[in-house]
Automatic annotation (TrEMBL):
The lineage of its organism: Bacteria, Pseudomonadati, Pseudomonadota, Gammaproteobacteria, Enterobacterales. One of its GO terms (molecular function) is DNA binding. Residues 23-71 form a coiled coil. Gene3D superfamilies: H-NS histone-like proteins. This is DNA-binding protein. It comes from the Bacteria. Residues 3-78 form the DNA-binding protein H-NS-like N-terminal domain. The keyword Coiled coil applies. The keyword Disulfide bond does not apply.
C-alpha cells in the first residue's frame, strides 16, 4: 500500500516538473522511458514463459509417474 502512495506522489511530482520543462526535453525523456518499459516488458514475458515451461514439465513428469505406476514400475528401482 505504501508503494502505491509513493508511485502516486512521484506521478504528481513528475506532472509538476513537466510544467516547467520544455517539450524537447520531455520528448527525449519519453523516448528513454519507452525503452525502459520495452525492456521490462521483455523480462516480464520471459518470466511468464519460464513459469509456463516449468508447469508443462511438471505436468509431463506427473503423467510419466502415473504411467509408471500403472505399469507397476517403481521410479526408485530405476
Amino acid at each position: 500500500m505504501v508503494d502505491e502512495f509513493l508511485v502516486m506522489y512521484m506521478y504528481k511530482k513528475i506532472q509538476a516538473e513537466a510544467q516547467a520543462t520544455d517539450m524537447k526535453t520531455l520528448e527525449r525523456l519519453l523516448k528513454k522511458f519507452r525503452k525502459v518499459v520495452a525492456e521490462r516488458r521483455e523480462e516480464y514475458y520471459q518470466e511468464i514463459g519460464e513459469k509456463k515451461a516449468q508447469k508443462l514439465r511438471a505436468e509431463r513428469l506427473q503423467r510419466l509417474l502415473k504411467k509408471m505406476e500403472r505399469d507397476r514400475v517403481s521410479p526408485h528401482e530405476l
